[in-house]
Design a protein that fits this description.
The protein is α/β, with parallel strands linked by helices and about 450 residues long. It folds into two domains: about 250 residues, Alpha-Beta Complex (Spore Coat Polysaccharide Biosynthesis Protein SpsA, Chain A); about 170 residues, UDP N-Acetylglucosamine Acyltransferase, domain 1. A seven-stranded mixed sheet has the order 5-4-1-6-11-8-12, with helices on both faces. A hairpin with a 2-residue loop joins β2 and β3. GO terms for molecular function: transferase activity. It holds the Pfam family GMPPB_C.
Amino acid sequence: MLKAVILIGGPQKGTRFRPLSLELPKPLFPVAGFPIIYHHIEACVKLPEVKEILLIGAYQPSEALNRFIATTQRELNINLRYLQEYTTLGTAGGLYHFRDQILAGKPSGFFVFNGDICCDFPMVDMWNFHQQVQTGDHFTMLAAEATRKQSLQYGCLAENEETHEVLHYVEKPQTFVSSSINCGVYIFTPEIFSHIGAVFLKNQADVFNGGDNINPVRDCIRLEQDILSPLAGAKKLYVFKTTRFWSQIKSAGSAIYANRLYLSLYNSTHPERLAHNNDNGPKIIGDVFIHPSARVDPSATWSIKLPVFYAVVSRCATVLLRSCPNVTIGAGVTVGPGVRVRESLVLEGATLQDHCCILHSIIGWNSSVGAWTRVEGTANDPNPNDKHAKIDSSTLFNEEGKLNPSITILGRNVVIPPEVMVLNAILLPDKELSSSFKNQILL
């Protein structure tokens, strides 16, 4: 019997995801029509040995979280529980604090996921690899290739090419170590708690040996630095490499990229989730998710005058796409005739009025975009000429204190008037514009 643990963090994390995380815990933000961690859970269910999934984080229980757990349990027929940390305990501290709950039922092992990643999770292949390693109790981590420069932003590992043992591991090194990076997915056996426990006891001993006894850091144990690094080279840690897609979801811009990846994956895993052409609906080319409750104007039509890459949406959330639109239309969205959408997320209850244009943007819950208005952001994609390139989660401001070009984000209940342009802007919730707005944050 196996279990799975998803580390979802807490409200003090995910600041780069604001203002979207102001309204909803980041792990529940919808990507490709479903919350981020729903994709993790769905991947776990594909492995029959997984009998329970635990969410560990510091979020206060909420209606949204409780509803998600209840709905997901019912849909996927899996036991799903949330375990709340009393404070931020770190990626390994939370595991150790809830070790009794994880070990209940005597699982032979358990998966651990970081909650802020998107991936074509190779669960079955990774588990088969883990079982084939003939060294007694051992642990397995998932890795992927990155560019030499970008590898410095991740945990890097060096492996024995024959045995796949991890010989050296460094979290975000200062100099180049390896282009193999940690993907934030692990398989542990119960023995891992003896290693975490040793670090826990050391931290506690430091408090009584002259340390700061009110410093909350003593309760924080980092999986990468405190556990994985010492295990490297001890014939305990092994690596399974994936060539499937993988990306972090650190910023709102990376959510759009994740949306593209998951929509593309639906072609092979869930083609029924993608919108298709029909006689009474819009013309659709590319990968588009439209929630059944969205309202799309049936008059939306294909027009050869549309520029390449544009999309038009209508009827439940009408969509007319010329090439690879990568659009998700949420529940209750209203999209008028002539609307063009590309590389964007339109969240629940939003309204796109006639002939507006949405490019590289996230339209917040219950927001409204006026007729003939253009809302546009700047794409933040990996280098298309390098298959190992990852998306860069850049900071909002450059060294001169100016706002870096980024996707445009409308928070909840934002109102954009007709016939204006909103470019590379971030609008916090409950704002109402009266004119065009660009390269700014509206607080």
